[in-house]
Amino acid sequence: MSAGDYIGFAISASLFAALFGATGVYVLRTLTLALEGHYEFKGDSLTKRSRLAGFARFIIWAVLAATAWSFFIDWIVFEDLEFAFTALAVRLQVVIEILSHLSDN
Amino acid sequence: MREGDIGAATETPARSKEHGPWGRRIDERLHRKEYRRQADEDQRHSTRFFPCPSCGADLRFDPGTANMICAHCGTEAEVPHVDDAAAQLENCYHFYLDKDTGAMAEEEAPSIDCNGCGASIEFHADEHSRICPFCDGAIVGDVRMQRRIVPQAVLPFKLIEREAQEAMRHWLKSRWFAPNDIADEAKADHFHGVYVPFWTYDAHTDTDYTGARGRRVGSGKNRRTVWTNVSGNVRGGFDDVIVSGSKSVSAEFKDALAPWPLRELETYQTEFLAGFRAENHLIGLREGFAKAQVYMRAVITDWIKRDIGGQRQRINSTYTRFSKETFKHILVPVWITHYDFARKTYRLSVNGHTAKAYGERPFSLWKLIAGTTAMMLGAGVIGFLISAVPWVG
Question: Kind of pairing, strands B153-154 and B312-341?
Fold first, then answer.
């Protein structure tokens, strides 16, 4: 990897960390409320249903974050951006499959 | 026994026979004084004051017991037991709706509308401190008599204020990602015991639907969903769908403070309200049922999806017939407070019967950042494992 590649990697990784860090705070907040709602709200109610959406947000965030991580690991380990993008495309297809499967359930 | 039976015999002041140089004026003044006193007495009667038979101070309902107690001398008076069947009586929704609730018994209560949150709260004319229990705002305005539907049942308070405070502390301590010192630092000035009006609805539903059942076929890029049109009918009943009749107690608070032990409802007696506030209902019978239907339709959607079956479901149209709709109008006990933490005010309520607490809460930003960092590292480990798996690499 050239110096330019390293700078590109550093900028991309920083953007990734900033984006997922900021959304992660929001996701963790909604996950906390969902967990509290799950344990505290007795019986079925519309509020409980809306709270439980926090679990879905967390799963989507976690799957996307793990996929993005795998892209950066591929990029830095194999020092090949093109390969990292190809692998990312394949994984995103798998991710979409998993998420659509989860939405079915 | 209704209001006024406990210590209702009030002494009528003896008319002064004394006449001085200004005898007539004195007599007029005394007359006016007596008139005012009589008016006050009438108001006390209508606003549910129960004078202590021993000292004349106000009796108030003693939570957790079936008694009223005098805070001044400790005299106790039993709340008379009346027929419990009336508390569980289901009223025909359409009968009362057709009469535009005119068939329901009404009573007058001295109330003020809060300009801040819109709550209509019972206040007595002689109360100097007028703070809205819901929004904690100062209330200005005159107390006026407002007509309201008499609830058929009441869930009496079981918790005293100290127990509500303890429930609040316990609730705050058990919050995840909350500041460490919240339970000790959160300062609640005062708890207001308020009876909040609720509607409960029962209904039988019969729903016709059309939709489609999806089946996934193929794999990889060729994976797709094959849809088959379906139609059907689902039926089911709802029992005691609770809707808040208050605009100040949101659906979120109502749901969070549940369960409300409706089996323990007592037939409405004003004695249960003595010493507590009661909110007038602002959401009417029809509006309340519309809110109940929103929940019922969400449940019916689940029934339809289950009935359709398959891997995916689509609902194109539904037509629901509601029948056997009945309702109850009840009052439930809630301790309401506001606590201050880090220069912000948070609202908190405690179920006055079960001690279940719920409220707004602060999050510790540092804890959230630490938690997010841990989540990012966890995602990194999973990302590393994913990149190490050859079939996705």
Answer: parallel
